[in-house]
Amino acid sequence: MDTNSKLSNNSAVILVSHGSTLPYAEEVFKEIKEKFIKKSGLPAEIGYMKVSEPTIAGAVEILKEEVEDLDKIIALPVFLAPGIHTNIDIPQLLGLEPLEVDPRCPDGNYPAEHYLSIADDVDFDGEIELLGSIGPRDKLLDIIDKRISEALSESKLDDSAKTGILLVTHGSRLNYNKEFATALYDKFEKTCDLPSSFGFMELCGPSIPESINKLVDENGLERLVVVPVFIAPGMHTTHDIPHILGFLEDHEHEHSHGHGHGHDHTHDLTPVEFDGEILYPEPIKADDILIDILIDMVNE
Asked: What pLDDT, in 10s, does the model give residues 242-278?
């Protein structure tokens, strides 16, 4: 197997995901799990924070049945950037201490209906080691380059068209996501010969329209490749960002998402104005390079 020999035969991995109401997100994580098991040789299960099954506690029970004398679980958050989920929610769902005080609920007394209150407790006597998020790794640039090449292969314009690249990620009220996106873009910019920038879907700036307008105005672009730096398809990649890019004919430019964890998101989805060609490739999904990254994280 590709993982190092320090892991015993009594170890297993939980690939931790947020969970989604959309079925194709679960399909992507199922493929990620299958590829990870095949390439690493380690027993693994997906554990969803909320919405989807199995839960994190449920994943532990599955692995206890699968691995005889299981004594160590490596919890691997399949999240690009750190944040409230990786630093607060996931540790508590694993029965561990949070890594920081929860700004949503500083006293730790969550409402009765909060998903941290209603989640099943993990029943496990062995060691649980929680890893960090993926972060701005160099191998992510290889995936981004693949998505750009895939998009350009579908272009209706010829190679001489003035082309720009925009990396898009979610955004956060905290600095974590912006720090991740900035660090990743700083690496990308050094390797990209085309005009480029990055933008956030919500909660912090620059926004997608701001970045597109600046990129187009400064470079006279005829074609733009907008790369969604997200793991799996979801409402943001299939509805929100396409709406901003003008792909959807929905007359409602604003809508609210209630996530059931203490806050609502209201999105301004006013489409950008760009007369050129916009190419919008797939997110990362179960790319083989992502699987290599996850195995690297376990080895490290």
From this structure: 999 998 765 444 444 444 444 444 556 677 889 999 9
Quick check: is 198 in a domain? yes
Residues 194 and 91 both lie in one domain: no
Coil vs helix vs strand at 62: helix
Helix (H, G, I), strand (E, B) or coil at 119: coil
Return the pLDDT at 20.
85
Per-residue model confidence as pLDDT tens digits over 92-103:
999 999 999 988
Non-local CB neighbours of 141 within 8 Å, separated by 6+ positions: 184, 187, 188, 191
Residues 187 and 244 in one domain: yes
Name the percent of the chain in helix, strand, coil, to the closest 5. Answer: 35, 20, 45
Domain hosting residue 155, numbered range: 138-284
Nearest residue to 245 via CA among 132, 176, 168, 184: 168
Q: Answer yes or no: do 147 and 107 share one domain.
A: no
Q: Are residues 157 and 278 in the same domain?
A: yes
Total count of domains within the chain: 2
92 plus 153 within the same structural domain:
no
pLDDT in tens, 13-63: 999 999 988 888 899 999 999 999 999 999 999 999 999 999 999 999 999
Residue 125 sits in the same domain as residue 147: no
Contact 116, 94 (CB under 8 A): no
Catalytic positions are 170
Beta strands in 146-195 (DSSP E): 163-169
DSSP H or E stretch at residue 235 = helix 235-235
Do residues 121 and 46 share a domain? yes
